[in-house]
Design brief:
The complex is a heterodimer of chains A (about 300) and B (about 270). With about 300 residues, chain A is α/β, with parallel strands linked by helices. Chain A is built from twelve helices and eight strands. An eight-stranded mixed sheet of chain B has the order 3-2-4-1-5-6-7-8, with helices on both faces. In chain B, strand 2, helix 5 and strand 3 form a beta-alpha-beta unit. The complex binds guanosine-5'-triphosphate (2 copies), potassium ion (K) and magnesium ion (2 copies). One guanosine-5'-triphosphate sits at the interface of chains A and B.
């Protein structure tokens, strides 16, 4: 990897800090510069990094830290804590609605992993003893409906579709009625990928939201996303009020700075991590592990 | 933004612009250090002149080579999951058709749900044929059949779709190498090229993608997709510089006509356009 040296460098920096009995403000600042570079190289958004570092610095150059017995370790602890905190602290999950069906709507940019995640969530719900209905509300992408149907077949679970000539708002409304009459206690809406700046399609999502009032609106984000993650997350959250994030493709070597950027701009928790193409490749998200990954540790 | 002085603030702004365009820390530092030195050595006082020098430096990094596309070609399209491979194939096929070429597609993604149907849908729109086997079939076998068919029909352009895969999945990268070996062995008079599709919203991970795909199948060119969004795709500068892979095409939408040649000048202009 191109940034191979970075993890080592950070470790070095932290080791140096740990080794020092006494730390000066200058020591802390130079260590934080390394942290800053690590975050930028992990694709955390520039502005987010700036804010983050100044926040950590505020805590780290205080008297309690500098005068403590293990100042180096204190600084590392602060960096880790703040990172973990920013990404939603304790792990959260999808709550089932008291009045079923629980309606979950998946949204995001093109190719992020929505349709695959729909299948993965269905599998998880089946395991929980639920009977989910998958809904094909992507009428634009060639063979998007078929893709969801194939996943439905693999799970032996029904897929609701009305072809690609109907309005997605009508499709989702009809799907809820179907779930109610069929007794499906969870409904998973697979929407088409769209750009956050595509007003017409963003408006379509607002209309779906108004029509079916989902219990959970999840934003699906590719963990390889760069600086743009903040623009995307901000716009989807502004438009829809998302409830959480699914971070996909974490099975690669992406450092996943997008996680931090998104949490920082939306304040919404990352709920699940996609770690492969298979339907079982969905895990609960662990902020602390992600913090280490982003820092390359 | 306009500047009237060359000072630390200007350099910091330029750094911010480049990093926010996904140019990456190392490349950004290098670029900014270079213009700092030039400003000193050449006693440059005009900030706009300095920004022009910076843009020229980037253009130099992106220097493009001409490609000749007269020979019948087999184009193997590779990349990570969801980058835009299948869609880009539809667009390239459309463009080739408009240039009066005979085009054939191969449904080499036998893995992802409905990948074959997706390619077939594009082929229908464009009006080309697709060679396909069933889901789960050996991708190399599909490629083999497609190459035979292309040769016997004297097709001008055969485009082979492949399943998305993360560059770190060594078994899947081995499979890709095998597909390429089969294509090369059977290609006869046809030229074989590999096009790597990169999603412009991707950050620094794209460098790792390009490196590992290049190691596996020797990439000839890059198609940068999804530039119709707000992402700038600045990471390709480092890829061009470090790995020497030229950027060929850009994707600017989801329709058949949303494909353009990569123009370094407009790309660099867009980097600075926030
Ligand atoms: N390696 C890996 N691949 C994934 C993961 N999640 C999804 N994918 C793959 O990413 C590609 C895109 O996934 P889709 O589910 O089609 O994405 P989408 O967001 O529905 O795409 P559009 O509907 O076109 O916007 C497919 O090749 C999936 O198999 C993951 O966690 N890891
Ligand atoms: N906005 C925009 N969307 C694009 C562009 N190119 C592709 N897409 C969309 O990105 C999504 C994924 O495209 P695909 O062509 O299926 O990507 P792929 O690389 O073949 O995906 P896998 O085969 O699953 O790995 C689809 O929703 C496409 O419509 C582009 O240039 N701009
Ligand atoms: K993507
Ligand atoms: Mg989809
Ligand atoms: Mg594809």
């Amino acid at each position: 990897m191109i940034f191979e040296g970075l993890a080592e460098k950070l470790q070095d920096t932290f080791d140096k800090l740990k080794g020092k009995g006494k730390l000066s403000e200058k020591d802390v600042k130079s260590a934080l510069r390394e942290v800053k570079l690590a975050l930028l190289e992990a694709d955390v958004n520039f502005k987010v990094v700036k804010n983050f570092i100044s926040k950590v610095e505020e805590r780290a150059v205080g008297k309690e830290v500098l005068d403590s017995l293990t100042p180096g370790q204190q600084v590392i602890k602060i960096v880790n804590e703040e990172l973990t905190d920013l990404m939603g602290g304790a792990q959260s999950k999808v709550e089932y609605a008291s009045d079923p069906p629980t309606v979950i709507m998946l949204t995001g940019l093109q190719g992020a992993g929505k349709t695959t995640t729909a299948g993965k969530l269905a599998k998880k719900f089946i395991k929980d003893g639920k009977d989910p209905l998958l809904v094909a509300a992507d009428v634009y992408r060639p063979a998007a409906i078929k893709q969801l149907q194939v996943l439905g077949e693999r799970l032996d679970q029904p897929v609701f579709s009305m072809g690609d000539k109907q309005d997605p708002v009508d499709i989702t409304k009809a799907a809820i009625s179907r779930a109610e009459s069929n007794g499906n206690d969870v409904v998973i809406l697979d929407t088409a990928g769209r750009l956050h700046i595509d007003e017409e399609l963003m408006d379509e999502l607002s209309q779906i939201k108004a029509a079916v009032v989902p219990d959970e609106i999840l934003l699906v984000v590719d963990s390889m996303t760069g600086q743009d993650a903040v623009n995307v997350a901000d716009k989807f959250d502004d438009t829809l009020g998302i409830d959480g994030v699914v971070l996909t493709k974490l099975d690669g070597d992406a450092r996943g700075g997008a996680a931090l950027s998104i949490s920082s701009v939306t304040g919404k928790p990352i709920k699940f991590a996609g770690v492969g193409e298979k339907l079982e490749d969905l895990e609960p998200f662990h902020p602390d592990r992600m913090a280490s990954r982003i820092l390359g540790m | 933004r306009s500047y009237d002085k060359i000072n630390e603030e200007l350099y910091e702004d330029l750094e911010e612009i480049l990093i926010q365009a996904d140019v990456g820390v190392q490349t950004t530092m290098k670029l900014v250090d270079d213009i700092k030195e030039k400003a000193r050595e050449e006693k440059i006082k005009d900030p706009n002149k300095l920004i022009n020098i910076l843009q020229d430096d980037i253009l130099e990094m992106l220097n493009q080579t001409e490609e000749d596309d007269e020979q019948p070609t087999i184009l193997m399209v590779v990349g990570v999951n969801g980058a835009g491979k299948t869609t880009t194939i539809g667009k390239i096929a459309q463009r080739a058709k408009q240039d009066d070429k005979d085009v054939l597609l191969a449904a080499g993604d036998t893995f992802r749900a409905a990948a074959i149907e997706q390619l077939e849908a594009w082929a229908n729109k464009v009006g080309t044929e697709v060679i396909s086997h069933q889901e789960g079939a050996d991708s190399a076998a599909v490629a083999y059949d497609a190459v035979q068919s292309a040769k016997s029909k004297e097709t001008d352009l055969l485009i082979v779709d492949t399943a998305g895969r993360l560059h770190t999945q060594s078994n899947l990268m081995d499979e890709l190498e095998k597909v390429k070996r089969v294509i090369e062995k059977e290609s006869g008079p046809m030229k074989v090229e590999v096009l790597l599709v990169l999603d412009a919203t991707t950050g620094q991970n794209a460098v790792s993608q390009a490196k590992l795909f290049d190691e596996a199948v020797d990439v000839d060119g890059i198609a940068l997709t999804k530039l119709d969004g707000t992402a700038k795709g600045g990471v390709v500068i480092a890829i061009r510089e470090e790995l020497g892979i030229p950027i060929r095409l850009i994707g600017v939408g989801e329709d058949l006509e949303d494909l353009q040649d990569f123009e370094p000048e407009s790309f660099v202009d867009a980097l600075f356009d926030f």
